[in-house]
Amino acid sequence: MIKDTLREALERMQSAINMLEDDLSAIRTGRASPALVERLPVDYYGTNTPMIQLASVSVPEPRQLLIRPFDPATLKDIERAILSSDIGLTPNSDGKVIRLNLPQLTEERRKDLVRMVNNRMEETKVSIRNVRRDLIRNIREFEKEGLISEDDQERGEKELQELTDKMNNKVDEVGERKEKEILEV
C-alpha cells in the first residue's frame, strides 16, 4: 500500500516537473527556438488551436523563426495570435510565410525572464508539496483504518519526504539550467 502511494507520488511529481520543462522551453533565450511559438493558441474558426497544428516552424538563422502555414488562409490568424501573445515579437509577413526576428535580449529583459523562471519553479514546488500533503493524508488514513501499522506510516511519510526533497532538487536543476541559458550572452 505504501509502495503504491509512493509510486503515485513519483508519477504526479514527475508530471509537475515535465510541465515545468515544457513551460520553460517556451521562454525565450538568446537563440531562436520553435518551442517559443509552437504551443501559442491561434483562433482557428472559433477554436483555440496550437500553432504547431496550423504551421511548420523552422529556424533559418540563429535569431529568426520562419512560420509557414499549412493553409495560407490562416496567415492573418497566426499573425494576430503572435501580436496578442506575451512573447513580445512583431511578425513580418510576405503573404506566404511569417518571419519573427528575435532582437538581442537586454540585461533588464534577461532579469525579467529569470524572475519568470523563478516564479514557475516556485509554482512547481508548491504543486509537489501539495502532492506530498495529499498522500501523507492518505497514509495517515490507512493507519487509522488499520490497513498499515504506525511504523509503516512513519516509514512511508519519511520516504515521501525524501522523494519530495529529491524532486525539489530536480526542479532547482531544471531552473538553474534555464537561468544559465537566459543569462548567456
Q: Can you give keywords for this protein?
A:
185 residues; alpha+beta; Topoisomerase I, Chain A, domain 4; Gyrase A, domain 2; 2 domains; four-stranded antiparallel beta sheet; 6 strands; 59% helix
Instruction: Using the 3D structure, state the CATH architecture of the largest domain.
Output: Orthogonal Bundle
Radius of gyration: 22 Å
Compute the number of structural domains: 2
User: How many DSSP H or I helices?
Assistant: 5
CATH homology superfamily of the largest domain: Ribosome-recycling factor
Largest sheet: 4 strands, antiparallel
Uncertain residue segments: none
What is the string of helix and strand elements?
Answer: HHEEEEHEEHH
Strand order, main sheet: write it out. 3-4-6-5
User: What gap, in angstroms, lies between the N and C termini?
Assistant: 50 Å
Q: Total number of β-strand segments?
A: 6
Question: Percent range for helical residues?
Answer: 55-70%
Reading off the top of the CATH hierarchy, the class of the largest domain is best stated as Mainly Alpha
Q: What average pLDDT do the residues reach?
A: 88
Structure description:
The strands form two sheets. Strands 3-4-6-5 form a four-stranded antiparallel sheet, covered by helices on one side. A two-stranded antiparallel sheet has the order 1-2. With 185 residues, the chain is of the alpha+beta class. The protein is elongated and about 70 Å long. The chain is 59% helix and 15% strand. Helix 1 (2-25) packs antiparallel against helix 4, helix 1 (2-25) packs parallel to helix 5 (150-183) and helix 4 packs antiparallel against helix 5 (150-183). The protein starts with a helix and ends with a helix.
